[in-house]
Amino acid sequence: MKRNNDNQSIEDILKEFVSTNNLQHGLDKVNVRDAWANLMGNGVNNYTTAIELKHETLYVQLSSSVLREELSYGTEKIIAMLNEAIGKETIKKLVLR
Questions:
Q1: What is the enclosing helix (H) or strand (E) of 55?
Q2: What CA–CA distances, in Å, run from 23 to 3, 29, 34, 54?
Q3: Residues 22-59: pLDDT tens digits?
Q4: Which residues contact residue 55 at a Cβ distance below 8 angstroms, ignoring those fewer than 6 apart?
Q5: What is the pTM of this model?
Q6: What does each C-alpha distance from 28 to 19, 24, 46, 58, 72 come to in angstroms?
Q7: Is the Cβ–Cβ distance between 36 and 71 less than 8 Å?
Q8: Tens digit of pLDDT for each residue in 12-23?
Q9: Cβ–Cβ < 8 Å for 96, 62
């Protein structure tokens, strides 16, 4: 990693490191999991068995068919809330399984 100038912030250095080493997708996966846990709360998290981000689709495995049905009515809102929490448009589609 090259240093452009001594006044470069830690944030800029980390962004450059992430970009140079193609780590952004891995970080997005972690950020999505954290955002889901924080936004959905314990009630939903207790029934969440798996979360996987593939390309721009978030796959969420739920152990409750009733909860899955209930959440399916608000997928657009959930996508918007997750993207807002992450700070960028990472998720385009939500699949509840």
A1: none
A2: 19, 10, 17, 15
A3: 777 778 888 899 999 999 999 999 999 999 999 999 99
A4: none
A5: 0.78
A6: 13, 6, 22, 11, 23
A7: no
A8: 888 888 778 777
A9: yes
